[in-house]
Protein 1
Amino acid sequence: MTLDYLIRPARPDDADAISAMMQESYGTLLVPDYNPKILSKALPRISKARPELLICGTYYVAEDPAGVIIGAGGWTDLSPARGLARDGEGHMRHVAVRPAMLRCGIGRALADASFASAQEFGMRALRCMSTLTAQPFYERLGFEPEQPVELTLEPGLFFPAIEMRKVL
């Protein structure tokens, strides 16, 4: 299936549309891989568009011809968990695609835009904290798993993930 869409930098006024898309994506796709109690508490935290990403210029949306956001994702030079990244390493951030649009190349297009941008900024590698569900997607993009991690979303709420790395 060939879809017509545009990849562009996200803007602050995309926040509600990105959040709705992430809620649909994560709320559907993560169900088979996560404990329902963890997921019910985690979803409100992980499916909200991050204001700092919407203004950074390296976080992108995929928009269909009607202006509907069907995917989002990007990178930053800040680690989502620990602040500043290692020199020359960036971090993939909040990649999601509407479930009905999976396997249409949208996630790859967002990743490719991120890889090109990261290289322009002098990054030599990208890391990501992949959900258990997205690990095969990231592996297809050339990321290698490094270790399982538990992200602390709030005191007492730990979200299982896989730390991964890709050399650019």
Protein 2
Amino acid sequence: MIYLLLSIAASSFIFVVFKLFARYKINTFHAIVVNYIVACTSGVSLYRGATPTLHIPEQDWFIGATTLGILFIVVFNLMALTTQRSGLSVVSVATKMSVVIPILFGVIYYKESLGIFKASGISIALLAVYLASVKPKEVRTPIKTNLLLPILVFLGSGLIDTSLKFMEGRYVAEDDVPIFSATIFGAAAILGILSILFQVVSNRFCFEFKNILAGICLGVPNYFSIFFLVKALRNDTFDSSTLFTINNVAIVMVSTIIGILLFKERLLTKNWIGIALAVISIILVSLS
């Protein structure tokens, strides 16, 4: 349970960092690349396992972790593009609704139970995520939604969570969790560095030290959000469908509350209803 709470806390702190990016005019992509480097370094520093670092490419999970890292940075760019074209609420809903993919995977592949409490809780959770994600400005302004981009964000985010669960259960040893997480971020960092090098060659790169600081602030909680999530998945307290539901809904709740307390965000009636439904959904899923 403690690992789940720590993962929720780390993921919610990422929200705070992203909000500050806009305030201090941070180049998001550059900070994200630094963030992946920092996250990778954090994992390597914490690793105390028996597998020598040079033998990491020989591990059964290496190709999967590398693929996940590439997927991380691709989905991030899809999210940025979706935000620009369709608005923040669209990308937020697409990302959080993707929880249905690992939930269905857990029920179908791992034969996890789906009783009345869990089914009701999951259904309410999806509605809660949608209602809590609606923002005032975007409610008043009609959005011409490009369907392809939100669908790709939905599928990509769901695939990331599902792959984490599958690889953690089948290939990753307990002692290898730190280096497994580091490898994911390392692959994303390499792809990001290559993108920046392309910007340098094409004279489109502008260095600002504040982007490095921002990336460091983002990288540490980003690493631990994945590290603690993988640790939570290894625990038998909840099955994966229950854990992913609680994790995603709790992140939406905590992020919304942080927005109110720290950034004085104004909530709609729909947002408050979403928060209330989120609490109900967590209770129902936990009871299952």
Protein 3
Amino acid sequence: MPLALSSTMVRVCTGVPLIGLLGLALYMGGWVLFALVALCACLGQWELQAMFWNGREQFGGRVLALALGVAMLALALLPKAGMVPISVACLGMLLFFLFRWATNDSERFVSTAVLLGGLCYVPLLLAPVLHLSVREQLLLVGITISSDTAAYFCGIRFGRHKIWPKVSPKKSVEGSLAGLAGSTLLALIVGHVWGSAPLPAFAALGVGLGIMAQLGDFFESALKRSRGVKDSGTLLPGHGGILDRIDSLLFVIPAYATLSTFYPFFN
């Protein structure tokens, strides 16, 4: 029990400053928010690449992927940018493939796939958040935090039945249900205070985004297990890496952006 308490306190002590930093970025908006999103995208990509390569292996390609990720986010800010960010990423990876072929044709497909996969997984999924209002951004961050927190603590206390042991052995049905309850409750609160859509719509939104948050968590768990690592990194004590903290958000952001295009939840 002391060990579990210590682990929890480490998570809290790391999480509180992160929430403060995120709150400041959301409040400031503009280039401050862009800088934070770009930083998360770069760190997340770097951690993903580190699962496949050690040290300075593929260093040039990794730096290229980070630069393309930031460029994609910057282009996504432009009005009527459309598919330009995706086109830039694909063009960059095709050029990377070409020059790798000219110098070393071993594992050329794998290298390009890893870098392109990182661009699709992190900066491309983060990009829609730059176009959302502060209320929407707070909703998405709040849903992922409430879902993860409720699932974590209820899973530790009441978890008995494993939900998907092949992907994530420690996650339980009880924790998953608590996470859905947490995301739904948060969505209802935000909907009551700020929303323009009916509360049943926000309840459904909370359930849907809660499911997406957990699927994002499962995806990263499967990715880490496929590479034989426990965490994506060691940057955040008690949490792991940046990718371990934003994995749920990476699935929630595009899901909400798609839904809100057809059914607006805020004026």
Protein 4
Amino acid sequence: MNFATLKVAISALAANKLRTSLTLLGMIIGVASVTALMSIGRGVERQITTELQAAGTNVLFIFSGRPGGSDSDDPIVPLTYEDALALEELKWDGTVIEIAAEGSSRSMAVVAQGRDSQASIRGVTASYISVNNYELAYGQPLTETDLNSRALVAVLGSNVAADLFPIDDPIDQNIRAENLRLRVIGVLEEQGSGAFGQSADDMVLIPITTAHARLSRFVTARGGQPINTISVELPDEREETIDVGAAGIRQILRERHEIPEEEDDDFIIMSPKDLIEAVSAALGVFTLFLGAIAGISLLVGGIGIMNIMLVSVTERTREIGIRKAVGAKRRDILIQFLVESVVVSVLGGLLGILLGALISFGIAQIPLGDDGEGLQTAVTLDIVLLAVSVAASVGIFFGIYPANRAARLDPIQALRYE
């Protein structure tokens, strides 16, 4: 293709401005949809990955369940508070620094001074705040004494504190949650939205022993107090440190759960790297799914290009005959109409990327939560390159048939066409 061919293509398209504009519109909408939806998926992936990394790259998370690929039908033994206490022995030789456990959480209304706030009441251990890298705005954290005495005390998330005590100092004030009357001993710094939509700003942290005694007295078959998660802080984030820590945890839990050597674990140990990889893989599939849905509109835009090019071939039959009569080859005619098709698709793609970026920016400005933050979006270079290449491919694919049809016209028959 040379400059003269491109100039002729642009002139032909400019001769039918309305028709070209409508064809462009189909491509613009298609590419804008792909760009906007994929940027949303990519933004969510980045947000969750950042939040997981903020939780600490030297922390192992332990959940009940079986590792992927396990085919065991044996019942899974829930993790218990006693399991977390048993792991404390790993602190003796410095294998781990700290261990935190989180019991079951319940969403309920918390009331104080005639005001109320919907909060997640969570039973946690004394080290929960430090292991999760939370900071106290003021007051004090939960202590081992609070756990041992099943104290009726609470640390509030920033949103809960602001709702219940917009003016007063919440420290040493009383709050009520169902049958619990709790004394506030601390308030967390604002954390913002958390991974998977969970935010510490909407939590009320109470001793795990208090939660078990007052909110849920369920015990396992062996008499243990069930919990959701155990978080283990390691000395550093080196791979060998993580491997040693995971091996020590696995040995203790397998012994406690009486798992035979040939059977799989009934718990899952995950590092932040494992979580990030799992989340990235899942969100990557989600992003591609969004792109595939938006790609339907690109298909419609491509059909529009084919349709308009077929009309153009019909209208310019005599022109094609004249060009062939003066020496134009089939290849010249083919390239000419292919260029016109690609120009429409690429121009529509570029405008579509711009529109998609504007849509993404607008979506990011819409506040979704109480913190006023919007959904993160990210128009990355790979999304732009993908959109441009797809647009060009659509132009070539849907332009080949009309261009080939034009190139195969018999010059004598074309000259006679009225």
